[in-house]
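Good day; I would like, with your permission, to put a structural problem before you. I would ask you to consider whether the tokens describe a fold that such a sequence might reasonably adopt. The full record is reproduced below for your convenience:
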Amino acid sequence: MTVAVAVAVLTGRGPAQPAPGEARLDVDGRAEVVRIDGDVEIVTGSTLLHRGERMTVIEGSVRLTLHDDTILEGRAGGNSGAASAIKVDHVPELLAGEMLAQGVHGVTVSAQGNRIELTAGPGAMRISRTLATEARTYSGRVIFDSTGQRRSVPQFRRLSVSVLGSPPARARALLFDAADEWDRRFLGDVVHIGPRLDALAAAYSRTIGAAHSDFVSVLEEVLPGIRTNSADTASIVDSVRPPGELLVGAAISELGEQGTFRERWRSVFAFRDDGASWGLVAADQRVPLGRLLAAVEAAVNRSPLPFAVRPATSLGFLAESLDIWGQTDTSVPTGPGLEPAVPASSPASEASAQTSPPTLPSSPSDPTSRTGPSATEPSPADQVTPPVDEPSTPPPPALPETALPPPNLPSPTLPPPNLPPTILPSPTLPPPLPPAPTVVLPPAPNLSLPPVTLPPTEPGLPALPEPEPVPSPTLPLADTGFSPLTTLLPPDLGL
């Protein structure tokens, strides 16, 4: 097996028209290609993949173009964590990782024994292979066939099969990641505006709470289009749902055009209960998100709430323009030691509150010092009463600060506690032990031995001489005050 590096290598057919079962590979990064004969190539540009050849993304992303202009995309380490690995064939097979398939005439791929078909018409689907095989429908319609068990996966839904031949009964709501490139490309405003609608609905519910038991009348007031369907609204509104959920769901039902109002209402909340975001619910009802956001914003402004929403500068930023987390308490506490705050007055009120003392003329002939309706003719009071200078009172002299000694307070003496005497019970001693019994030893046993009689000597053997008696050594006894040993032994011992 040989390993080669191919850069912009195109063999066989031209790059624009691969044959059925082939694909043109365009690499943005690096990819490993295993040829039919076992050779391995590291591709950094473009090349042609024949039927049965495999491709694994090492770095970046790849794009495979089939003979009918169907586009398959792969990448290195997507959400599944594994790099995309695809085998080229009449039915391309996803060996590992994720694959994005887009087609105009329909496309069928396989993964772990399952066949996933994107039906005819423009559409896009996303296939991932881990412990389970999952199909997500961005647009169009997908048929998931697991060994004869067929399930439909409509737009904005997903279906995951972990056991071959045992698919779930129905598809669920699509889950998306705002940081995922493929989700941002195909969901667009759903990724950006959808979470804002969710936050707005939650904030509206927290603010209005349970203040309005008859929320149908509130909906008719804030959403004028609901009044034409008031009979249906009163019969289908679920009072258990939060007010914010009802407000956004009613706005989508009002702006939708598929089916009747009752059918749209049920479809909206069924998809919402399945886990779909409000942006995904609106897109499923073909409601433009910009129009929905404006309608919800206007409804919030008309609601009986203690705040008003200023228009958002751009779509998707409405939640940042709300101030619905309560009001600041400006009341001033009063009580002992607390003085009430004086409200600040305006400059005009301060100017009107200040009064200047009357100015007395310095002389009768000084017209500038006169006050009254005429500044040129003196008044009679000015002619009769001369100006009187009031004596100025000098300020009081400053007194020196006197340092007060610390107070000499007597130390408090606490009386001794009057506690009753404590009488402890006298201890009870156990009775004395009985005297030990006297132990009487039995007399010593008779240790006399019978005489030993030796058999007669056999003829022919010399007779053994009689042993001479060995005198017993007599040891002197110490003068201990005791009688000799012979006096202590019984007479029948035989010694």
Remarks:
- Residues 59 and 105 are 30 Å apart (CA to CA).
- DSSP finds eleven helices and 16 strands in the chain.
